[in-house]
Automatic annotation (TrEMBL), chain A:
It is found in: Mitochondrion inner membrane. Pfam families: Coq4 (PF05019). Pathway: Cofactor biosynthesis; ubiquinone biosynthesis. It comes from Lasiosphaeria hispida. It catalyses: a 4-hydroxy-3-methoxy-5-(all-trans-polyprenyl)benzoate + H(+) = a 2-methoxy-6-(all-trans-polyprenyl)phenol + CO2. One of its GO terms (molecular function) is zinc ion binding. Lyase that catalyzes the C1-decarboxylation of 4-hydroxy-3-methoxy-5-(all-trans-polyprenyl)benzoic acid into 2-methoxy-6-(all-trans-polyprenyl)phenol during ubiquinone biosynthesis. This is 4-hydroxy-3-methoxy-5-polyprenylbenzoate decarboxylase. Keywords: Lyase, Membrane, Metal-binding, Mitochondrion, Mitochondrion inner membrane, Ubiquinone, Ubiquinone biosynthesis, Zinc. The gene is COQ4. Zn(2+) binds at H171, D172, H175, E187. It is a peripheral membrane protein.
TrEMBL record, chain B:
GO terms for cellular component: extrinsic component of mitochondrial inner membrane. It catalyses: a 2-methoxy-6-(all-trans-polyprenyl)benzene-1,4-diol + S-adenosyl-L-methionine = a 5-methoxy-2-methyl-3-(all-trans-polyprenyl)benzene-1,4-diol + S-adenosyl-L-homocysteine + H(+). Component of a multi-subunit COQ enzyme complex, composed of at least COQ3, COQ4, COQ5, COQ6, COQ7 and COQ9. It is a peripheral membrane protein. The keyword Cell membrane does not apply. This is 2-methoxy-6-polyprenyl-1,4-benzoquinol methylase, mitochondrial. S-adenosyl-L-methionine binds at T145, D171, N201, A202.
Amino acid sequence: MEVVLRRSAGLAGRSVHAPRPSLAVLSLPASSTRQYTPSRPPPNYPGHVPLNRLEKAALAIGSGLMSLRDPRRGDLIAAFAEATATPYFIYRLRDAMLSSPTGRRILRDRPRITSTSLNLPHLRALGPNTVGRTYVDWLDREGVSPDTRAAVRYIDDAECAYVMQRYRECHDFYHALTGLPVVREGEVALKAFEFANTLLPMTGLSVFAAATLKVQERRRFVDTYLPWAVRNGLRAGEVINVYWEEELETDVDELRRRLGVEAPPDLRAIRQAEREERRRKAAEGRV
Amino acid sequence: MAVRPAQFRRALLQTPSRLRQQNTIQHSHPELQHLLSAASSPARLFSSTVTARALNTPDYAVPNPSRPTHFGFQTVTEAEKIERVATVFTSVAESYDRMNDLMSFGWHRIWKDHFVSSLNPGFSPLASGLDPRAPQHILDIAGGTGDIAFRMLHTAHIVNANPDVRVTISDINPAMLTVGKQRSTLLPASQQAALSFVEANAEDLTRTTPLSSPGTANPPTSAIPSASVDLYTVAFGIRNFSNIPAALREAYRVLKPGGVFACLEFSKADAHPLFNTLYKEWSFRAIPLIGQLVAGDRDSYQYLVESIEKFPSQADFRDMIIDAGFVVGGQGYEDLTGGVAAIHKGMKPRA
């Protein structure tokens, strides 16, 4: 009643005709006027933001362009993955998990990979060629932590949101599996492998970041790493179905054999050798 | 300057009755100069029965850390709101100015320019003597990144050629103040010298500390004395306060009699329903998205648009200002861009 009066009566009339709210209420006055909330469906899981098609398209375009400009914005790459995963691709990945016994177990258990769930000191104590040791060595060498992954927010189905979250958290394991470093070159090569394997659009579109590589790096990518990625990604079993928590003590070469993945040429070693060669040439040139 | 009878009646009706008995509002034009000039001429001075506020502070105007208030659409205690607002603004401080441009298409600059020029700092026709360029102390609350303060300094020192105007920027958040301090290094030296940065909670200006560089020892806390400020401004800050009535009373305390309280804040555009719908859709859909893309923080911008929604309407906020003891002229507020923003002004009555 009070709301209707407030909105229809003119300013001059309002304070005379409408009952004044008690001044004590003025510390929380918003209860007396109607509030606007956008018409969104209710969230399906904590943190879920259901976007409509226009918003999703805008997010996809915006995050795609901006993460191409600044690939260090991991949050934008994550948002780009989520905005482009529907309609078809994330469902295909979820179905690939459902088709495999291990995949089904992962979907049932819904394990999460964080620095606390993995017990990193124990991994460091494992044998030298185990998956766990390779993983933690890689984490230490690159100086990254498993905790930096953003939570999935823009995928509507809760199970598919978990699939995306699992893919995101396993990304570091894929690095350890292939041995590719965190530098832009290594990330682009790994994204090409992931696209051939998981078919997520973000991974495929990230390959366009190869245009931002240096000439020598781009040549190496096109000659060696892209063919390696396509060949191995297509041939290998679905890496999303690997239950990493159970494979930590497996020998890493045995896992590669089982999956059908061959290790690419050691990119860090190649880059190191190139750097040294350049330094040597510069020193020679000076002499 | 003649007063139209309808406006006078309206102005009179809008003050709570106890103040109405004491104050007589003679003027209707909301601009500062008219407010001050009307109050200065002896024939229009307020009744001599008005004393400095002897009214007891009501309970809702005393900050109480466990009293419920709102943080966007959530209900939290006042203490929790302070913390969560601090997190929001520490997170957005670096990209604050760029985000403002993106969210309002640069229009916030127009609003701020109009706000400052309508206040015309540095020029006070009330000053005793013939020269209107008396010293002024301006307090800019929640002024973190300095937009209002820099405009005040420019208007006072350059446009009005009054070098005796000093501005204190106060903010509860040191990250925002640091951004303001960095931006201030681009000002002319004389303006930088007239500028000071303090960390303070606007609900209690008896405890302010000057902004210190990280790693240095904590500077001593001092108070802003009562009746020491000529102009108190708060732009796009007051909706984030945990207890607005407390902040209004603190504003009343620090202002000199005849001093002006001016607030620029987002407000209700529901007088224009179609425009309002478009505006709300833009706010709730596009702004958090831009926050995600530019600042990497969707939740802070979701909070910001929700806090705009929760802020009282123009008339309600004007009533809160009057309740704190200020007198307002005419409607007490000025709508900008159809009500998307509004300027509220009040004056502390002269004793």
